[in-house]
Amino acid sequence: MRFRSKKGQLPFIELNGEEIADSAIIIKELSSKYEKYLDSGLTAEQRNVSYATIAMLENHLIWIIFYWRAKYPDNVLKGYKVNLQHALGLRLPNSILNFFFKITFGRKGTKKLKAHGIGVHSAEEIEEFGKDDLKVLSEMLDCKPFFFGDEPTTLDVVAFAVLSQLHYLSKDIAYPLRDYMTEKCPNLIGHVSRMKDKCFPDWDEICTKLDLNAHIPKPEPETKEGKEGGEQEKSNEQEGTEGDKIEKELEKDKSNEKESTEENKEKEETK
């Protein structure tokens, strides 16, 4: 099972053997293929508003949420109840995978945030940015079931994808931005619930089985008679390979850190 597209992106789909990555391109291709256009009922002005708001969601608010994830990777695992063995399809113990995730996700995430620009701000400033975005969305939605009326459009789809990451974070995990949305923007909570009920009637089953196609019957699992020895060998080989990959990744991170430290030291000596 593959977990990322050839471009290294999520989500991605395969349509008639062709891989399509990036949400915007996926929606465009599916709309064209099945002649179903979510925004067909919008005016030109509404489409422009939708385009600008989606840009805010994808290029600003989602990075504010990503900032929290990079800063608190341990809370990401706990808050979303992530089982890395299942998510990555690996056999290594979760304790090792969790340790590796916390180190690499935090470091790489911090670099991405700085490259984006949001990472240069203080935590307080970033939180205020997020609250401002939520306020804009809340005022846009107002008392309507969806952003442009009684039926969802592309903006509703994108908003759900982003806001659900706040709403469905475990309440046991402290996150001020999630609390702000709950207390100050209750209409956004209602929007998330409506989109979930409309688009994912089997949501609970999906979350329980961790299977996006829970409604499709699955074949009976194969019997293990006569295969245990071979499977054990494969398991050991896989664990060895996975362990080597993780060790190399950690060594690479340490090497990069060392090089960065030496460069800074040289700069200071030059001064």
Topology, element by element:
Layout: E1 12-15, E2 18-21, H1 23-34, H2 44-71, H3 73-79, H4 84-88, H5 94-116, H6 123-141, H7 154-167, H8 176-184, H9 186-199, H10 203-209, H11 228-270
Helix pairs in contact: 2-5, 2-6, 2-7, 5-11, 6-8, 6-9, 7-9
Short note summarizing the structure:
The protein has helices at 23-34, 44-71, 73-79, 84-88, 94-116, 123-141, 154-167, 176-184, 186-199, 203-209, 228-270, and strands at residues 12-15, 18-21. It is mainly α and 271 residues long. The longest helix is centred in the last third of the chain and has 43 residues, at 228-270.
Task: Describe what you observe in this structure.
- The structure is a single chain.
- This protein is mostly helical.
- The protein folds into two domains: 1-36, no CATH class; 44-209, Glutathione S-transferase Yfyf (Class Pi), Chain A, domain 2, CATH 1.20.1050.
- The protein contains eleven helices and two strands; from the N terminus they run ββααααααααααα.
- It has helices at 23-34, 44-71, 73-79, 84-88, 94-116, 123-141, 154-167, 176-184, 186-199, 203-209, 228-270; strands at residues 12-15, 18-21.
- The chain is globular and about 55 Å long.
- The mean pLDDT is 82.
Number of helices: 11
CATH class division of the largest domain:
Mainly Alpha
How many structural domains are formed by the residues?
A: 2
Low confidence ranges: none
CATH architecture of the largest domain: Up-down Bundle
Q: Rounded to an integer, what's the Rg over CA atoms?
A: 22 Å
**How much helix, percentage-wise, in residues?**
55-70%
Pfam families: GST_C_6, GST_N_4
Region (Disordered): 214-271
InterPro entries: FAX/IsoI-like, Glutathione-S-Trfase_C_sf, Glutathione_S-Trfase, Metaxin_GST, Mito_Protein_Transport_Metaxin, Thioredoxin-like_fold
Protein name: Failed axon connections, isoform E
